[in-house]
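As the next step, I wrote out a protein sequence along with its fold in token form, included below for the reader:
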Amino acid sequence: LPALETVLARTRMRLAVLTGAAPTALDARLAEQKPLPGLPSTPLAAIGSPQSLLQRRPDVAAAEAQLRAADAQGSAARSRLWPSLTLSGSLGLNAGRIGDLGDSGAFVANLGANVLWSLIDNGQRQAQVGAADARRDAALAQFDQTVLAALEETEGAFVNFNRSQQRTEHLFAAAKAAEGASRIARARLEAGSIDFLVVLDAERELLLARDRLAQGQTGAALALVGVYRALAGGW
């Protein structure tokens, strides 16, 4: 018991610090013993397919942003292969006397165009385009790998949660059976048909079954946390 109480105390402290409070801030709230929160049996079917929820994940969003940036860099590199056209012009007044500024002949306009196209460094620009395409291909491969890894983690989280729930149901049935066996052993002891060692053995099996049930319930709760993490929460 002292070892378990130490774990409980340190866990309460850790939870308090994670919420931004003092280590002992949650002692009064968590001191009361309560059962684990009930886990809904089929809540995950209503949240959508894992593929539609991958956009919530920050790693997928980051990989997509890098792919978009690589596409933009490739487009910019290709645009430098073509000539650049610059339009320039001016509009003003020109008259020998101030009184002539209102005449139509006093208006002066100038329009010009400048085309720049360097053929000397075209090989360098072609190399820049090739490098941009290579970076884009690398970003695409990284995006595909990130999506596949996210799908694997998400599907695995769903499977783990569903199997954990099934295991908890079996452990609950086993605990109920052990409780019934212990009750029967007590009744047989009172009737004088068995000795006390049989009762102790039945109660030991009951305690083990309850301990396994508690571990199964904890595993199911952690599996649900894994689903939240795989889908980046928000649902």
About this structure: The longest helix spans residues 122-191. The chain has five helices and two strands.
